[in-house]
């Protein structure tokens, strides 16, 4: 019987990967970005700051499946990974091949010091949900009430037409010396979200991960007279529909709200996403956080959990470590 081999994807895999991506898109009835080509995959995935990484499953020198992932960042637990896609071609034993690829991905993620493996799942894909759950991934939409929000390309274009930054406020990219202030605001946001024990990382970790050899996130701060009054932290995403930006945190100090600072920070995130040809801006909101939900909806973002059944799944570090041992 031929042997199944899983390994990290290489630039020379891009033609075969592209064929699998097209098959996955057809199976899931989701259109592939018409501008995406094998060469495009090479450029995005194997350039100086890769937009995605892959794990491939190989049998008889042919690719029979792939997992697509990218690094993300949690302001609570630091480096994380998002498994965007897990696909096995028609003729294979799906669960075995998918498990082998996921396991390889988790091995790579643990070696990069990631403490979470995130997955976005669809409510009506019951088989996939069972598969994730049987490997101990948790449905966070169910357990913590996180909803998936998305601003699409048209709303992004409309939103960035505005350019107003409130008087006296400076919006600028964060520098390493902002990490202490950002860490404090991360705590303020966690307190607001009623999860004060959430943030585990310190300012030093933020410094290494945002400004070290490999950059895991971008951050911007809002300042008034030298005082930090808000921040946003974000990173870039990729799937076969196109590139995107994920806003992990957006926070404005209570005494500075309703002046347009939140919008100015969010606009900066979207502009950075659009500069990379991003076509969506995603983020998570707790279902009870109605003022923020109203704020996001009023600017054209949609609750994809409500509309399309998007769910957040997560394998935590403990389960990741158990998974690779099996
Ligand atoms: C959400 C948050 C970042 C918004 O920041 P902000 O600086 O207060 O918001 P802005 O002043 O930029 O918002 C201004 C715009 O949003 C609208 N808006 C703000 N709050 C709103 C609400 N509750 N309902 C409807 N619209 C709202 C305003 O009407 C205004 O629009 P306009 O200029 O067209 O009139 C801020 O309230 C916050 O930090 N909240 C707590 C933390 C949080 O929930 N963060 C998001 C986690 S997912």
From TrEMBL:
Pfam families: Acetyltransf_1 (PF00583)
Keywords of the record: Acyltransferase, Transferase
Domain N-acetyltransferase as annotated: residue spans: 4-161, 169-326
GO terms of molecular function: N-acetyltransferase activity
Keyword DNA damage among UniProt keywords: no
Family: Belongs to the acetyltransferase family.
Name listed for the protein in its UniProt record: Putative spermidine/spermine N(1)-acetyltransferase-like protein 1
């Amino acid at each position: 019987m031929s042997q199944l081999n899983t390994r990290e994807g290489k630039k020379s895999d891009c033609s075969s990967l592209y064929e699998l991506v097209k098959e996955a898109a057809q199976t899931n009835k989701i259109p592939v970005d018409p501008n995406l080509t094998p060469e495009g995959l090479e450029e995005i995935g194997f350039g100086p700051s890769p937009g995605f990484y892959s794990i491939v499953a190989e049998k008889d020198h042919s690719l029979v499946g792939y997992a697509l992932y990218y690094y993300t960042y949690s302001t609570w637990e630091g480096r994380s990974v998002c498994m965007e896609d897990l696909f096995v071609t028609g003729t294979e034993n799906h669960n075995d091949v998918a498990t082998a690829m996921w396991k390889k991905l988790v091995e790579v993620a643990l070696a990069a010091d990631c403490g979470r493996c995130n997955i976005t799942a669809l409510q009506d894909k019951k088989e996939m949900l069972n598969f994730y759950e049987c490997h101990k991934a948790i449905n966070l939409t169910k357990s913590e009430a996180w909803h998936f929000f998305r601003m699409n390309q048209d709303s992004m274009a409309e939103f960035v037409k505005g350019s107003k930054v409130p008087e006296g406020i400076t919006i600028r990219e964060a520098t390493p010396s902002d990490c202490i202030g950002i860490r404090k605001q991360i705590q303020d946001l966690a307190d607001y979200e009623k999860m004060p024990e959430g943030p585990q990382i310190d300012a030093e970790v933020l410094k290494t991960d945002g400004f070290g050899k490999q950059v895991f996130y971008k951050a911007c701060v809002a300042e008034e007279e030298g005082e930090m009054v808000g921040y946003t932290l974000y990173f870039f995403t990729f799937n076969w529909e196109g590139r995107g930006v994920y806003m992990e945190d957006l926070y404005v100090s209570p005494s500075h709200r309703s002046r347009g600072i939140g919008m100015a920070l969010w606009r900066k995130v979207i502009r950075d996403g659009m500069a990379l040809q991003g076509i969506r801006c995603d983020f998570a909101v707790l279902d009870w956080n109605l003022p923020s939900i109203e704020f996001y909806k009023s600017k054209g973002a949609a609750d994809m959990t409500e509309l399309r059944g998007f769910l957040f799944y997560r394998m935590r570090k403990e389960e990741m470590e158990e998974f690779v041992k099996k």
